[in-house]
Amino acid sequence: MKIETLARPLLFLGIFFLASCQQKTKPDAPPTVGQDGGLSLTVNQDGEITLSGKKIEIENLQKNLVEALEKMPAVPDGIDIKYEGEVLMGMRGEVETEVADAIAAAKAAKGRPVVEIQRFRKQKGTDCDRADGEPTNCAIIDFQYPAVKSGTSALREAVDKWTADYLTGILTGGAAEKNAPAATLGDASKVFFDSHEEYKGSAMYGAFEAGSGSDIVLNDGKYLSLAINGHTFQGGAHGSNTSAFATFDARSGKRLTWDDVTTDKAALKKLAERKFRKERAEVFKDGFEFDETFPFKLPGNFALVQSGIYLHYDPYEVGPYAIGPTTFVLPFSEMGGLLKINPLSRRTGSAATSGIYKMEGNEVVIPAFEIEVGHSPKAKKVLGDRKETTLVIAYFSGLPTNEEDSNETGMMHILEKEIELTGNDNIARFAGLKFSKKMYGKLADKDIEVLINVVSGRKSSEDNLLDCGLVEKKVSELSGKRFKLECRLIQ
């Protein structure tokens, strides 16, 4: 995913930790649903839980329930719970909350659209494959963008239009008179290539490039949030980077507006301004202040994420170009009655939060994963000439149950790990990373967020030379897998 400015992980609310559960065991296989489609759930006075004949730990209950419920022809509105003996009210409450959340998650999962990342690539020119990575007659388009493959036709059409509008805008410069005839990527590509014809052969202007990366930020069956981050270079000293975020109703395909999200935009704007000032405290210390030229407002770019609403401010939106873009998350927990909608992620945790870690004494072991780093020919040549290395940095964060455990962004830092790649090495393997059970117990969602950033090793320059985008995933999504980031040289 190519989001240069997304500096904070996107986190979501989830299953609360039971302080009384000291030992976490590997989750049992999901229970089998009987022929009558029913599930039996029993809790005894010792706190032991049996689900359709299988003993289940409380921290694994929701995951196993979701897996079993998804196999049913129709998810029921409730499950009968049998209490044996004097079961404490606290235990009853925990079990009933897990059951309600599992039913909601299973119902949403049945209607979750299937979204895939598509690729559109074209190039035109005579020296696009030059070994030195310095073409003077080449125009390249390399887009990655989301597309709904299984879902309602309304959602599919809405997402297609949104992506087409954004990507054609990158290729045509966003000018209305150019966009009008460029209704498709094919039309817009012609505009891009025709524009390049005027400059081919020039060392400064002869290489045109347009590209994008994308990610599925939220897909819970109720809402679909997508991100696309594009860049274009059409000669000159530097290129241009833009971002687009949107949330769609998974059924109707309607793109959410601020009026759909909040009951009081004025009050929400005040909350957002407080967050903005905290996030960008340094620019206010340097003398910046909102005024008639740059009044504060809610951004045009926002999206629902698991823990709240992600806000993205482009340069010039509420301040001069010099302060750059600004991003942060407004947690649902801070919005209270200002939130008009009721996102599923506000009520339920991740179905994958249980059983993803191993426990070793007083430590929690994060499952292993790998990041593969690719370099463009030009980036590879420059790094080689300068004997420069590549750093792959993983940041692990979580949303705490108690506000006093959070930092200024509302998150709790867990750990970070840096791996340096040299020579022809291009795989960074993150394995054996641990954090304390005490910290684990403070998390509202056990499925922590991982942010992967790739930069140059700064051996030859104080400045980062690489533009690689970011990987932002839950640890359950990364577990045992390999993700690839493509790096290009910063112009």
Q: What is this structure, in a nutshell?
A:
25% of the residues lie in helices and 31% in strands.
Keywords:
25% helix, 491 residues, 23 strands, 5-stranded mixed sheet, Actin, Chain A, domain 4, Immunoglobulin-like, alpha+beta
Describe this structure in words.
- Helix content is 25%, strand content 31%.
- Helix 1 (58-70) runs parallel beside helix 2 and helix 3 packs parallel to helix 5 (185-197).
- The protein contains 13 helices and 23 strands.
- The chain is globular.
- Strands 5-6-7-8-9 form a five-stranded mixed β-sheet, covered by helices on one side.
- With 491 residues, it is α+β, with helices and mostly antiparallel strands.
- Among the domains are: 41-110, no CATH class; 265-340, Actin, Chain A, domain 4; 355-491, Immunoglobulin-like, CATH 2.60.40.
- The longest helix has 22 residues, at 89-110.
Proportion of strand residues: 25-35%
Q: Major β-sheet, in short?
A: 5 strands, mixed
Q: What is the average per-residue confidence, as pLDDT, rounded to a whole number?
A: 82
Poorly predicted sequence stretches spanning 5 or more consecutive residues: 1-37, 174-180, 348-354
Question: What's the CATH first level of one domain?
Answer: Mainly Beta
Order of adjacent strands in the largest pleated sheet: 5-6-7-8-9
Taking all Cα atoms into account, the compactness measure Rg is: 25 Å
Q: How many helix segments?
A: 13
CA(first)-CA(last) distance: 19 Å
- Helix share of residues? 10-25%
What is the CATH T-level topology of one domain? Immunoglobulin-like
Query: How would you classify the helix and strand content by structural class?
Result: alpha+beta
* CATH architectural type of one domain: Sandwich
The beta-strand count equals: 23
Give the overall shape: globular
